[in-house]
Each structure stands twice: as structure tokens, then as C-alpha cells.
Amino acid sequence: MQPKCGREAAVTDRTVGFVYTPGMSDRSDSAASFSAEARRVFYEGHRSLALFMILIVFVAPFAGLYVAGLLGVVIGVLVSAAAYMLTPCLWRWIGD
Which residue from 85, 77, 84 is spatially nearest to 30, judged by alpha carbons? Predict the structure, then answer.
């Protein structure tokens, strides 16, 4: 007899793409806010903020290049990526 290893209890959530096992806690609100789907929905609902973030993402590396050379470009890319990822979370924290 082969072990079942929880195959009967596992349910695949096709919208998110992860396997949910009964008894396992759901994703927390903070973890869900970092998902790509949550960012897409946020930026679709806030068009002006999305345009501002596009500007930040493209300008920050060039500003870093102007200020500090190649190291500034790396820092600019990291800052723009962090801003893109954290803006929806911070927006919710501040209050929509």
C-alpha cells in the first residue's frame, strides 16, 4: 500500500497558483499585498500614481548615474524597484 501523502486534502487554487491544504493558514494581508496581482489591481485603480511610478522607475537610475556613477545606477535601480513594490502597501497603510 502506497502512502497518500495528503493528496486527498490538497486543493489547487488556480487563480493564485498555490496549493492550499486544509489546516494551513491563508496568506496574510501583508503577504498578499506584495503579490503581482495585488500590485496590478492597485496600479490599475490609481492611474496617476502608476504614471508617477513609471517616471520614478525610469528616472532614478539616471539620477543615480548623474550623482554617483555606476554605483548610483545600482542604487537607483534598487530604490525604484523598492518604490514600485512598496507603494501599494504604504498607500494602504497611510489610508486610501
Answer: 85
Distances (CA, A) of 48 to 31, 38, 42, 96: 25, 17, 11, 14
What does the block give as the cell for 86?
Answer: 512598496
The answer to whether residue 56 sits within a structural domain is yes
- Specify if 6 maps to a domain: no
pTM: 0.62
Residue 95 CB contacts under 8 Å (≥ 6 apart), including other chains: none
User: Is 84 within a domain?
Assistant: yes
Give per-residue pLDDT as tens, 44-77: 999 999 999 999 999 999 999 999 999 999 999 9
CB 63 within 8 A of CB 76: yes
- Measured CA distances, 4 to 1, 22, 30 (Å): 9, 15, 33
